[in-house]
Amino acid sequence: MNIHILLPVVVSFFVSLVTCTTNSSIIQTNLTDFQYKGVSIGGWLVLEPYITPSLFNATLLSNETANDIPTDEYHFCEKLGPDEAKKRLVEHWESMYNETDFQEIKQTGLNLVRIPIGYWAFETMDGDPYVSGAQDYLDKAIEWARSSDLKVMIDLHGAPNTQNGFDNSGLRNLGYPGWQNKTEYIDHTYKVLQQMFAKYGTGDYATDDTIIGIEILNEPFNPDLTKLKDFYIGSYNDARNIQIVNNTIFFQEAFQPIGYWADFLQYGNVTITTNATTNRTITKRANFSNVVIDHHHYEVFTPNQLANNVSTRLQDISNYASSIGKAGHKSIVGEFSAAMTDCAPWLNGVGLGSRYEGTAPYTNDPIGNCTAVNQSIDKWSKQMKKDYRRFMEMQLYQYGANSRGWIFWCWKTEGGATEWDFRALVKNGIVPQPLDNYKYVKNGVDTSMSSKVILSKIFLLLPIFMVIL
Ligand SMILES: *[C@@H]1O[C@H](CO)[C@@H](O)[C@H](O)[C@H]1NC(C)=O
Ligand SMILES: *[C@@H]1O[C@H](CO)[C@@H](O)[C@H](O)[C@H]1NC(C)=O
Ligand SMILES: *[C@@H]1O[C@H](CO)[C@@H](O)[C@H](O)[C@H]1NC(C)=O
Ligand SMILES: *[C@@H]1O[C@H](CO)[C@@H](O)[C@H](O)[C@H]1NC(C)=O
Ligand SMILES: *[C@@H]1O[C@H](CO)[C@@H](O)[C@H](O)[C@H]1NC(C)=O
Ligand SMILES: *[C@@H]1O[C@H](CO)[C@@H](O)[C@H](O)[C@H]1NC(C)=O
Ligand SMILES: *[C@@H]1O[C@H](CO)[C@@H](O)[C@H](O)[C@H]1NC(C)=O
Ligand SMILES: *[C@@H]1O[C@H](CO)[C@@H](O)[C@H](O)[C@H]1NC(C)=O
Ligand SMILES: *[C@@H]1O[C@H](CO)[C@@H](O)[C@H](O)[C@H]1NC(C)=O
Ligand SMILES: *[C@@H]1O[C@H](CO)[C@@H](O)[C@H](O)[C@H]1NC(C)=O
Ligand SMILES: *[C@@H]1O[C@H](CO)[C@@H](O)[C@H](O)[C@H]1NC(C)=O
Ligand SMILES: *[C@@H]1O[C@H](CO)[C@@H](O)[C@H](O)[C@H]1NC(C)=O
């Protein structure tokens, strides 16, 4: 037998032998105690209609109506066809973000960008209408981040046949996600993650810690949790086997209660049934280290939450954060926003109204009027600005104090979604600058209503009274 044929066999045998032992040449990222202050680069490499509505509206022909607006990136590409979709997406990728944005992000006091990307940026599946090309922009963004001294979390935001049914996965099918409907979708996701680990966890990318780590999968909704754990274990082991860098692997909480993931992280096991007839089971294992659970928190997706006043919300945030603090594993709040309404046009999806106004398809009684919040932010009343600032301050403080930190969703929008637009909120004094320059929340307590603040205001006004007198 020819030695050239034997060689790969020998090498792979050797490699598989040493994977079981600690690899002394593993590169540490040195970011174990990193405190996250991040923003997501939403709506860029995975389209979201409410972040860039104009892209979606621009697909309308003169003989069409609003019903013909595509609901997500999948249908955007399908409607335009590969050439036109590619042309428009490249224009969008080129224009929505550049190095200047990352410099601004850094100047705002943030230290990380979370970059959502879809599987189709790495490898499409047969019959997909998606166009590829976003991967090059992810790579550009990593260079911008490195130049601005920002860390990058790469976030697999869209899996085949949608892991959550939301438009932000690339394919909207609200309430009926389909990622686990066929093993080929899950297998394709493994394959794409393996490509990501090989590219971003070895070679030049592994020699510095710009890339803090990879999020396996964003927001799986209502999954079979045993299958999801199997997938988390499999992907984690792939990450450690493929990567030479010991970076952070992020597991999204999948809408489970705080504390749900503690045992899983500790024991790293899942038992799956491999033959339903005989009940044959096998247990799969991983030795988890450097794993962070990514919690997401919004207060606008049920009528009950929407009805809460600001004080109730502040209390909710404190309670929520303190339960994260007690969960016994590393966590971040990897998505939250300033939203106290679901009024941003198309937030719930193209063509869908709001629960806040009780407009179709929502059937709840109206809770309020979207006119005020949907105005341009410079027209917001003083009281609104104050309330939004209190809400933001409480979140920044509590998430920072009770977890490894936070990542706001998202850095910027086309303009119609102020509650979700960190840049606009900073410019208009709703996000503190510097970020810890709290005006109302002191040591985690909202002081905006207390006599102390009123008193201090009187003292501030005293010299003016004296001048008047
Ligand atoms: C150990 O790390 C080196 C590079 O740092 C890599 O070439 C080698 O494949 C790794 N071995 C294993 C078993 O992971
Ligand atoms: C997009 O189209 C919808 C429906 O016609 C319209 O209500 C909305 O104002 C448009 N948005 C933008 C940003 O053009
Ligand atoms: C609109 O016109 C285009 C041709 O310009 C045609 O292909 C399409 O079917 C028409 N759509 C509708 C909804 O009538
Ligand atoms: C980024 O784009 C903005 C306009 O959108 C422009 O003002 C700025 O100069 C660009 N920065 C770079 C580095 O090209
Ligand atoms: C997944 O399967 C379920 C059950 O058959 C179905 O209701 C759902 O629409 C499927 N989802 C997708 C995106 O195919
Ligand atoms: C982590 O720190 C060590 C010691 O300072 C250094 O050698 C190594 O290159 C750093 N790792 C990364 C990924 O920057
Ligand atoms: C995981 O391991 C723990 C500790 O050995 C055990 O209590 C638990 O039942 C195991 N869980 C599964 C799903 O195998
Ligand atoms: C499950 O076990 C039964 C009984 O041993 C066997 O006939 C069947 O082929 C098995 N099914 C699978 C999918 O392995
Ligand atoms: C397999 O488990 C189910 C549910 O736990 C049980 O009803 C069934 O009898 C078991 N089948 C066998 C062959 O043990
Ligand atoms: C976990 O670590 C133990 C002890 O080092 C080792 O025997 C086992 O193979 C590891 N398991 C996995 C799945 O890496
Ligand atoms: C990876 O880093 C974690 C701490 O962040 C450490 O516990 C673990 O031992 C490291 N793994 C390797 C293979 O160096
Ligand atoms: C909301 O308020 C505006 C003016 O503040 C008014 O014109 C509009 O009719 C109100 N809309 C609803 C749904 O009550």
TrEMBL record:
Reaction(s) this enzyme catalyzes, per UniProt: Successive hydrolysis of beta-D-glucose units from the non-reducing ends of (1->3)-beta-D-glucans, releasing alpha-glucose
Listed GO biological process terms: cell wall organization; glucan catabolic process
InterPro entries referenced in this protein's UniProt entry, alphabetically: GH, Glyco_hydro_5, Glyco_hydro_5_CS, Glycosyl_hydrolase_5
One Pfam short name: Cellulase
Primary location class: secreted
Protein location: Secreted
Record-listed E.C. numbers: 3.2.1.58
GO molecular function per UniProt: glucan exo-1,3-beta-glucosidase activity
Domain Glycoside hydrolase family: 92-339
PROSITE patterns assigned: GLYCOSYL_HYDROL_F5
Coiled-coil spans in chain: none
GO CC terms: cell surface; extracellular region
Protein name: glucan 1,3-beta-glucosidase
